[in-house]
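User: Can you fold this complex?
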Amino acid sequence: MWLAMVAAGRGPRAVEPSQERHLLQRMTQGDGDALRELYDRHARAVYSLAVRILRSQADAEDVVQEVFTQAWVQAARYDASRGTVAAWLLMQARSRAIDRLRGRKLRPENAASVPETRDPGAGADAQVLAGQYAGRVREALNTLTAPQRTAVELAFFEGLTYSQVAEQLNQPIGTVKTRIRQGLLRLKAALDDVRTGRGVS
Amino acid sequence: MSIQVHDHDTWLESAALYVIDAMTDEERRTFETHLRDCEQCRAEVASLQGVDEALASAVPQVDPPAALRDRVLASVLGSEPATRLEPRRAEGMAQWLPLAASLVLSLGLGGYAYSLQQRIAVLEDALTSARAQAADTLARAEATQRTLQLTQTHLDVLTAPDSTRVALAGQPTAPGASGRADWSPARGLALSLENLPPLQPGRTYQVWLLTAGMPVSAGLLTPDAAGRSTIVYSVPPGDVAATGIALSEEPANGVPQPTGQIVLVGLLARAG
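Assistant: Here's the predicted assembly.
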C-alpha cells in the first residue's frame, strides 16, 4: 500500500510501456493470446534468472511454469507503481527459485550443472534488446568493488540474509550491511548513466 | 524498560537490504512499519527501485527449451487452444439468435462475476491493511500507556515523603557497574542502573531488599544492550524493613534466596 504512495508522490519513474500493462489487462479478461505474448517477451529473462539461481534447467523450467501461471491468475493484482512488468515477473521468479534453493539446501549435489551459456541467443526483438540491456547492466555491476559485489550477489542470488552473508564471508555484520548499501548505490548510479546514455565509467 | 535506539544510518542500510530482500521476515515487517513514518527511508527505497530488476536481468541470458512454451501455455490455458467464436452464417437467424443471446448473457454474467471478484480482492486488501494498522496503533497506545504508568510509579516513589535515595556500588564481579535506588516503604523501589555486564543465556538479574533477616526479592530485570536499566517495583508483601538494596545474577526465573554473584550493593542510611 505505502509503496504505491511512494511512487505516486515521488519523482519521475520510468513509465511502464502501456503496451505491457495492456497485455496484463487483456489477461484479466481471459485473453490467452496476451499470455502468449507475455511469455514470448519475458520467458527468456525469467528462465535465465532461475537457471542462474538454481543451476538446474529442470528446476528453472518449473519456475517458469509457476511464474506464468501466477501471472495469469493474478494479472489484476499487478501494480504499475511498484515497478515494471518485467520486474514483477522477475521478482516472482527470484522468490520461487530461492524457495526451491532453500528446500534442497541439504542435497546440493542433486543440482545438475548448466553448461556456460551463449549470450545473446536468437530470439524475438524484445529479447535481443533485453540481452543488450543485460550486457549493459553487467557492465554497471563491474563498477562495484569485489567485496560489494560478492555481498550483493550472495544476498540476491543465494537468498541469504545480510547476517548469513556476514557469517559466510566471516565479516562483521555492520561491514556487510554497509557494503550492500554502497554496492546498490553504486549500481544505481551506474544504471542511471546507462539510461541517460553516458555509458559506464 | 529498555528503549532500542536506531540511529538513522542503520535504517538507511535497512532500506538497501529491503530492496534486495536480504533481511528476515521479522526485520522486513519492522522496517515496513518504520517506512510508514519515515519520509527519508521512503525516498531511499524509491531511489533504489529498479536495482532489483537490474540485478535480475544481469544474468547470462539462456533460451528456454521450445517445448516449455507449449507446456506452460497448455497448463495455463487448458489443452484446447482458445478459438474465437464466429457466428455460422449458414444457419438461420432463428437458430443463431438464442445462441447469441445466451452467449451475451453468459459473457455478461462472467464479466460481472469477474468484476465482483476483483472488487472483493481489493476490499480484502484494504481490510487486511486497515486491520494491521489498527493493531499497530493499539500496540503503540498500549506501549505508551505502560511507559506512562511506569513513569508515574517512578515519580510516586521519588516524591514519596518516606523515600530514601541510595547509591549502588559495583562489586568485584562488576566494578564498572553503578546505580541509584529510591526506596519508599509505602510506594516501592525505583532503580536506575548502568554498566551492568551482559547476561549469559538463561540468566537474569534479581533485585533484593536486604533486611535484618533474609533478603526479600523485589523482582527481576534484564538490562538493555548498553547494560542500562530503569525499573520500578511495587512494595513486596509483608512488612519489609529494608536495610539495603542488592542486585545479584541468577537463573532466568529468579530464586527465592540469592545464590549467584552479587553485582551491586547499597546500604540505606539508618534512620537517626
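Chain B touches chain A through 53 residues (CB under 8 Å). The longest strand of chain B covers residues 203-210.
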